[in-house]
Design goal:
alpha/beta, 13 strands, seven-stranded mixed beta sheet, single chain
């Protein structure tokens, strides 16, 4: 019989939805599963990151108005799941997690399933062990896990990775990922990789050069390239770290940079490989996915006016589709 976690921690309702998730004990299972019967039709889920929840008086490192507007807008979507690609707090300190809990109260009230990946800011201003303890206190269902997978019904597998740990061949995390992929259910049509540092992005030569893809994540991209050529599933990567929006395609894999969750925005030089040609700035946004027969449709939903105290204007600034095999 599958094992279910109790939800008795202070932050347990942050993972409202995880209480209904079964943890499979066999090696071929995802870490968490949501049954098809518990999901809406069509299946809608959201991905974004780089919020930097912290004291609302801090307005340089992050925009409290933008991040709060995004939280409310995502709640209004009522998605089946929200995948967060890292940098949830500004620093890995207790007060920042308290602000996160306060500002996302509606998510818990609405029972949204929230699946985060670790970013570099989760490890800021504290020792690693202390930072991880605060992370696991915020997300008790993830205790002792720095990476994990979610079977969102029978057609979507989401894999949350930790790019602050090694993804190089032979590493513990890479070996785990290989086992997950080897055990992929034949019904899965979409594999969503949620990660903080981007494996592929617009390479910068003047500014933000320290945010270019690193060898650690480029190794992941090389691995995915080999998988995509032979898999019936389609691979989509949602990363952050660059506080903007990018969409690139390489070797059959769709790479998104969705770092518009509220953190101080970054202006970037777009390369010809970037399919998004918008000139808007800043790009506070999230990505909405809708799965239907034969395709995964994506939309970048952008906050149109972030200057006011209560921003509310929203625009669809990018649309794309990933064709799925029958």
């Amino acid at each position: 019989m599958p094992r279910r976690f109790p939800t008795m921690c202070l932050y347990a309702l942050t993972f409202a939805g995880f209480a209904a998730l079964a943890v499979r004990l066999d090696a071929a299972a995802a870490t968490f599963t949501v049954a098809d019967a518990d999901l809406p039709t069509p299946l809608v889920f959201v991905a974004y990151g780089d919020m930097r929840f912290t004291d609302p008086a801090e307005t340089e490192a992050t925009s409290p108005a933008a991040r709060q507007a995004l939280v409310a807008k995502i709640a209004a979507e009522r998605p089946a799941a929200v995948f967060v690609n890292g940098d949830v707090p500004y620093h890995g300190i207790a007060s920042d997690y308290a602000v996160y809990r306060e500002e996302t109260a509606r998510w818990r009230e609405d029972g949204l399933r929230i699946y985060p990946a670790l970013g570099n800011h989760e490890f800021a201003a504290c020792l690693q062990a202390v930072c991880l303890e605060r992370w696991w206190t915020a997300y008790p269902e993830l205790r002792d896990r720095r990476w994990y997978s979610v079977a969102l019904g029978s057609r979507v597998l989401a894999v949350a990775l930790d790019s602050t740990a090694s993804l190089l061949p032979g590493s513990e995390q890479q070996a785990w990922l290989e086992r997950e992929i080897a055990a992929l259910d034949v019904r899965v049509r979409v594999v969503l990789i949620v990660i903080h540092h981007p494996p592929l992005a617009d390479v910068q030569t003047v500014k933000l050069v320290d945010h270019n893809p690193r060898p650690n994540e480029r190794a992941l991209a090389a691995y995915l390239e080999g998988l995509a050529a032979h898999s019936a599933a389609r691979f989509v990567v949602s990363a952050g770290h660059v506080h903007n929006y990018e969409r690139l395609q390489h070797a059959g894999v769709t790479y998104l940079v969705s770092g518009g969750g509220g953190a101080h925005p970054y202006e970037i030089d777009r390369t010809t490989e970037d399919s998004y040609r918008g000139t808007d700035f800043p790009n506070y946004h999230y990505v909405r996915f809708e799965l239907s027969a034969g395709k995964l449709a994506g939309e970048m939903i952008r906050l149109g006016d972030s200057s006011g105290a209560r921003p509310h204007q929203w625009d669809i600034r990018d649309r794309f589709e990933v064709s799925l095999p029958p």
